[in-house]
Amino acid sequence: MTETRKVAVVAGNRIPFARQDKTYRHASNSDMLTAALNGLVDRTGLGGQELGEVVAGAVLKHARDWNMVREVVLGSKLAPTTPAYDVQQACGTGLEAAILVGNKIALGQIDAGIAGGVDTASDAPIAVNDRLRNILLDLNRAKTFQDRLKVLARVRPKDVVPEIPRNAEPRTRKSMGDHAALTALEWGITREAQDELAYRSHINLAKAYDRGFQDDLLTPYLGLEKDQNLRPDTTLEKLAKLKTVYGKGETATMTAGNSTPLTDGASAVLLSTDEWAAEHGLRPLAYLTHSQTAAVDYVKGAEGLLMAPAYAVPKMLKRANLTLQDFDYYEIHEAFASQVLATLKAWEDPIFCKERLGLDAPLGEIDRDKLNVNGSSLAAGHPFAATGGRILAALAKQLDENGGGRGLISICAAGGQGVVAILEK
Amino acid sequence: MTDRYQTFTRTPLGQTLVKNLGLPDPTPLPRWTEGSPVIDGPVVFGAIGETDAGKAIQALLRDIGASFSTATEGVASSEIRPKALVFDATGATSTADLTSLQRFFSPVIRQLAPAGRVIVVGRTPELAQSAEQQIAQRALEGFTRSLGKEVKRGATVNLVYVAPDAHEQLDSTLRFFLSTKSAYVDAQVVRIGTGPLVSNDPDQPLAGKTALVTGAARGIGAAIADTLARDGATVIGVDVPQNADALRTVISKIGGTELLLDVTAVDAPQRIAAHAVEHHGGLDIVVHNAGITRDKRLANMRTDAWDAVLDVNLRAPERITNHLLDSNALRDGGSIIGVASIAGIAGNNGQTNYATSKAGVIGLVQALAPKPMLTERQIRINAVAPGFIETEMTAKIPFTIREVGRRINSLQQGGLPIDVAETIAWFADPASAGVTGNVVRVCGQSLLGA
């Protein structure tokens, strides 16, 4: 096999993220992904060009969108000869899509591609329940009028109750927040620490907007120019007043303020080789150098639902021959403030690192001033599949601004999974 | 968890029906409250000859201020209602001496007060000096177990075997069996060996000690935490994060520390040891109370139901115990207490997994108790085997099965979590230095596995 090629992150774009049932309530996944994609094509001057591939996905997807990304490409400013496919790995979708594109570039199979993700919590797919679905399918199979009547007679009032997608784990029937609340308790993550992290997320994202950092990372959409969830004027006092929403009684610590809200939005990231970028008048912002996925057995309670990144990162560090402290920036997706804090605490814990990770010494502390320096999901919101692209683009730009350095990305996902990566310049 | 039937039997109508229909008539069992004397009535003491054990028993009776007599004839013909009958049978060297049992008990047994106590003290048969002595001593078990079924009105009968030269270790055990702390412990056999002599304040026997209780958030675990704290221990309450709130309620009342974790987690033993050492400098008492049921007949048993029960009930206590011993987090003179079950002794339909795990707990006690690793450090290991205990868990049992479970024991009622907790507190007491390798049932002499 030939030597692998460097994978550059060249540009990124997203639409501002909107809160559920607000500005984007009538926008479909395809609409939003098209907007994010066209914005990227415009900014990079790739209109009419054929790319190696476009890979993206959505977590909550309509059945009719079975070929969503290809359809989006056909409706976009890219050449219609650009292939595309859908992927889905829950909240890890966006980053996993970038890893897939990056791997093809590294292997020389393609020179450039776009990775992205989109999600809507507003325009959610509502399905008929399984019983009615079976009846309707039988109706379709019925040959005679009498047969059709017989099938229709099976319909009962309860059959018209639709199935609405729930943010819950199929195997435990607990919501992600309830799972996170258990992990928060297990690791003794306090309400104060969570509120502090949420506060910093809002302040950091607000600062990023103020200094124009977001200007070439966003395309306004439906009149929205900034993330709708951002509260630049929030204070620790305001956060402390919120009622808890997950967990029970006096041990509950998680509020709407330190948990991410349901959000709508889309993102896209352009990856290529150095040569391809130069040929197209573009330049690398940073390089995608390592990635890793891991999963944990949360079903039997052996590990917390959102703790997989704590396992993925040390595996990746070992392969990259790096320590946790060898980074200038840490982008840990804030599904819940408690998830970030529990992950950091686990890495500092000698027992966890020895018994669960099999390490001789703990990974250790990180410099908190390097964490989510431009805000993260608590402030921006978290349209599941779109988060990976948001983080990749922002970290690549931050590394470029910094004149180099190294950044760690960590994203937890439903089903007890974690996707992590390293960007370097 | 009120026993409605028992409440009904206390009403005038209930009494009439019970008497005329021959229904079960469970006597309400008094439980120990702070400040109560060890025993609140006269004691009659009998013996086969003068022995060291006999002297130790009489010294204790004097010590606790009990009014006691050694003459049975006077009692039999008088209005005196003894609260306890204590018989020292350690002097029985052959089956000829067994005659004394009948001679002593027959005249007075009818006089025994409600919720009275019968304690027979014998010599550990396996340590007998002759075959004749061993036979005679072994015979005592049949006597106490039968008498347990004969005495009514909440009285209990227990047998305490004491090893040669271990008579000084009798105190904490006799205090336990004489008092209402042993209200639901009936027809049990306890073996006492030698050990260091520990004299502590019987009101605060666990003062200065740190106790770990798993599954402390509710039910029996909460009662154990309360009781050990009452006796002076600082409690580390362990439970899964799901029960955080209930655990906090228990611990905030008694002022210990909380540790939220799943005992089956790979690093649970390390975490427990680290917490104990960091917050309390170490541990003295470990109570493996956390337990679950996933009942199904074996033919329908799912792999995860089997594994979960074995993991929580048996493998976790085994792993945690081993780590606490290896790491020296458990201090010298410590006490390890397992929670078995009568299902682990008698077996139970639909509980192959549960009974396997609970019998395994008994195995854990028997395997570890004689190990030099424990004996050299005076670390003891025992287990309780609860029968039908009135908890949230048993409240969910269907009515008829619950009623049967409650009544098929000599005391004709269910036990309370406190009964299990008191037994554990007796095991935990440093003065019980000679008590190791025992499995004591807290079952009111259940017919199951008897």
Task: Look at the helices and sheets of chain B and give the structural class.
Answer: alpha/beta
How far apart, in Å, are the first and last alpha carbons of chain A? 25 Å
Poorly predicted sequence stretches spanning 5 or more consecutive residues of chain A: none
User: Helix content range of the residues of chain B, please?
Assistant: 40-55%
**CATH classification class of the largest domain in chain A:** Alpha Beta
Reported by name, the CATH topology of the largest domain in chain B is: Rossmann fold
Q: What top-tier CATH class of the largest domain in chain B fits best?
A: Alpha Beta
Q: How would you summarize what this structure contains?
A:
Chain B: This is 3-oxoacyl-[acyl-carrier protein] reductase. Chain A has 425 residues and is of the alpha+beta class.
Task: Please provide a written account of the structure.
Chain B: InterPro entries: KR_dom, NAD(P)-bd_dom_sf, Sc_DH/Rdtase_CS, SDR_fam. Chain B: Pfam families: adh_short_C2. The complex is a heterodimer of chains A (425) and B (450). Helices cover 36% and strands 16% of the residues of chain A. Chain A has three domains: 8-14 and 32-118 and 266-279, Peroxisomal Thiolase, Chain A, domain 1 (3-Layer(aba) Sandwich); 130-160; 176-262 and 286-424, Thiolase/Chalcone synthase (Peroxisomal Thiolase, Chain A, domain 1), CATH 3.40.47. Chain A is globular. Chain A contains 14 helices and twelve strands. With 425 residues, chain A is of the alpha+beta class. In chain A, helix 4 packs antiparallel against helix 5 and helix 6 packs parallel to helix 11. The mean pLDDT of chain A is 94. In chain A, the strands form two sheets. In chain A, strands 1, 2, 3, 4, 5, 8, 9, 10, 11 and 12 form a ten-stranded mixed beta sheet that branches. A two-stranded antiparallel sheet of chain A has the order 6-7. With 450 residues, chain B is an alpha/beta fold. Chain B has three domains: 1-29, no CATH class; 31-192, NAD(P)-binding Rossmann-like Domain (Rossmann fold, 3-Layer(aba) Sandwich); 210-442, NAD(P)-binding Rossmann-like Domain (Rossmann fold, 3-Layer(aba) Sandwich), CATH 3.40.50.720. Chain B is built from 17 helices and 13 strands. Chain B has helices at 4-9, 12-21, 52-63, 72-76, 99-108, 131-150, 170-178, 219-230, 244-254, 268-280, 303-326, 342-346, 352-368, 372-375, 392-395, 399-407, 417-428; strands at residues 43-47, 68-69, 84-88, 117-123, 156-162, 189-192, 210-214, 234-239, 257-260, 283-288, 330-339, 380-386, 439-442. A seven-stranded parallel beta sheet of chain B has the order 9-8-7-10-11-12-13, sandwiched between helices. In chain B, strand 8, helix 9 (244-254) and strand 9 (257-260) form a beta-alpha-beta unit. In chain B, helix 3 crosses helix 7, helix 8 (219-230) packs across helix 17 and helix 10 runs parallel beside helix 11 (303-326). The radius of gyration of chain B is 22 Å and the shape is globular. In chain B, 52% of the residues are buried. Classes of the chains: A alpha+beta (425), B alpha/beta (450). Chains A and B meet through helix 6 and helix 12 of A and helix 9 and helix 10 of B.
